[in-house]
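Exercise: predict the fold of this chain.
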Amino acid sequence: MLILAVGLAVAQTGVRQFAGNWDAAVGGTTFARLELVESGGALSGRISLGNIHVDDKGVVDEVQKPATNFTPIFDVRIRDGVVAFARKDGDDTDHFELRAAGAELELAFLPTAEDRALLAREGVTTLPKPVRLRRARP
């Protein structure tokens, strides 16, 4: 019983590092906002993503539209220190992974084969690299 309680406490501590409000910005303009709430060892929340441009290496170099509208996240799964989740974007579903990176979080977009094909048809050949999220100031 003690081992189970210790294991649960360690798992909840790992989840708590993700809880909070997080932002990513370029040139002072926020292009990603993530709000995560921990309850009973589970995470829930919402995300807001603006429109970005990436350079030929996949690094965000311009914010074309700031993050303003939130959508709920769902299908939140936590395994081996990685939080995976999804969000609806119109009729599409976008998938993401979140990893701890010191005092920051690293957010990665996980495009499907269909996403990649659509982006290629639109002339997008370089996908965004994971972006660093910093804890937002209250």
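Check your answer against the key: The helical segments are 2-16, 113-121.
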